[in-house]
Amino acid sequence: MNRAEELKENLAEVEERIAKACEAAGRPRDEVMLLAVTKTWPASDVEILYGLGLRNFAENRDQEAGAKVGQLRHLEEARWHMVGRLQRNKAKSVVEWADQVDSVDSVRLAEALAKAAHAKGVKLDVLLQVSIDGDTSRGGVAVQDVGELAGVITRSGDLILRGAMTVAPRTMKPSQAFQALVSVVSGLRDDHPTAIGVSAGMSGDLEDAISHGSTCVRVGTALLGSRRLTSP
Questions:
Q1: What does the mean pLDDT of the chain come to?
Q2: CA 218 – CA 102 distance, rounded (Å)
Q3: Contact present, 48 and 224 (Cβ < 8 Å)
C-alpha cells in the first residue's frame, strides 16, 4: 500500500469514528472539527490529506512548522494551528505562519503574541491551554487564573479568544478532564462571546471527548501512524 492509499484508509477510519461518536452523543457531525496533527511528518503528507479534503493542520515546533508551511503556500485553504508549548521569544516567528495558537497559557505569552500580531497587522485567533489538574509545569494556565488571562487577550485588540484546549492529565480520567474543560469554556462565554471552542480529545480518546462536548479533536497517530519522520 502506498502512502496516499494508507492515509486515505486512515482518514476514512477516523471519520467513521467521529461520525459514530457524534451520532451517539446526538450531535451533528459538523460540530466537530478534525485537526490533523502533522508534526514531524513531511509536507508531502499534508498535501495528500489536503487532497482528501482536510483543511486544518497542527504543528508543535516553530522551526519545523515555519519551513513546512513555507513549502505549502500553494494550499490556499490550509489553516495552521500551533499546539505546542511556546516561548514568548518565538511569538514573532509563530505569527508568520500560524493562523491560530492553541497553547496560550500565560499573560506574558499573550502580550508577546498580541504585539507580534499588531506589528504584522493581523488578528490572531487563540485558545487558552488549561491545566485541569493545576500542574502548570506541563503547560497550561490553572483554572483559577483563566479569567485573568482571558481578559488580557480580549483587551489586547489583536488577539481573538476562540475557546480553550486541554490535554487530559494522566492523574485523571479523560472524561473528568473533558467535562472540566467544557465547564471552563461555558464560564468564559458570557464575558467573551467568541470563546466557544472546546479542543479536547486525541487519537485514543476522541469518542469520550466528543461525548462531553468537544468541538475539535486533535488527531495524529490514528491518521499518520506512529513513525516519526523529519520534514524535508
A1: 95
A2: 11
A3: no
CA distance 58 to 35: 7
Please list the residues that pair with 218 across neighbouring strands. Answer: 35
Residue-wise pLDDT tens digits, 4-30: 999 999 999 999 999 999 999 999 999
Residues 22 and 89: their CA atoms lie apart, in Å, by: 39
Neighbouring residues of 226: CB distance < 8 A, sequence distance ≥ 6: none
- Cα 10 from chain centroid? 20
Quote the Cα angle for 22-128-113, to 5°. Answer: 130
Take residue 181 and report the three cell numbers written for it: 474543560
Q: Length of the chain, please? A: 232
Strand partners, 159: 124
Residue with cell 486512515: 10
| Cβ 177 vs Cβ 129: under 8 Å | no
Query: For residue 96, what are the β-bridge partners?
Result: none
Q: Choose among 128, 99, 115: nearest CA to 189.
A: 128
